[in-house]
Amino acid sequence: MKLTILGSSASCPAPHDACSGYLITESETRILIDCGTGIVSSLLSLGLGPLGETAQQPSGAVPNSWGLDAVVISHMHPDHYLDLVPFRYGIRYGKERTEPVNVWVPPGGIAHLRRLGECLSTTQPFFDAAFTLREYTPDSPFTIGGMVIAAVPVWHSIPSYALRVIGAGRTFVYTSDTAPCASLNEVAQDADLLLAETTLGTEAFAPGNDLHLGGPDAGNVARVAHARRLVLTHFWPGTDREAVRHSAMREFDGVVKIARPQMVMTI
Fold first, then answer.
1. Which residue range forms the structural domain that includes residue 12?
2. Can you tell me the distance from the alpha carbon of 32 to that of 25, in angstroms, rounded to the nearest whole number?
3. What's the domain count of the chain?
């Protein structure tokens, strides 16, 4: 199982770095986790794109699936899903139009996208022209290809779900956007790779802060959960990422890496 970083920027894209988007692959299964601003361009840069265009499709890809088995959205903040809009157009108006892409969203996410679609186009339902929309059930694992995914509620300003992905005997955990909470420690337990947001930079979460993690919080989660490796993501543009890494390393003595666009890691 492998992780490819497509974007690691928080709220707005940074130069050469899209908002949240992470490609998980295991054998022939490809899952895109989050689809924030700029992620469609990142997919194209990897050679995933509409059949008949310049991007190269992987062997055996379903036409217009962009080589993806599914997209899974962690929560309905725009920097985690907004590139579903250009993604929809890329599929809808590609030279070959056949199979829609399965998009899994949190409870209430379909209604959220329906409302957005009504503002964007007279073609309704807007997103259904390219996607099969599905809602996952919290704490109820679902299967996509060779991977099993559990969405666990965490603590954020809107409903947000950490994602635990198991495939080929390996475990990947993505925190989503969250402040420190017991459910986050539980879902991250024994992760082979923990991908943790660090919006607060080198600061630790404190009452009155936005409901996010800082580097020290991410390191603490990795330590308490006995994660094997920690990758930090979701940085404000201009953040000193190396300083954030060192703040996490003070709490966790395992491997700590900084998410960078197109970085690939074996889970």
1. 2-266
2. 9
3. 1
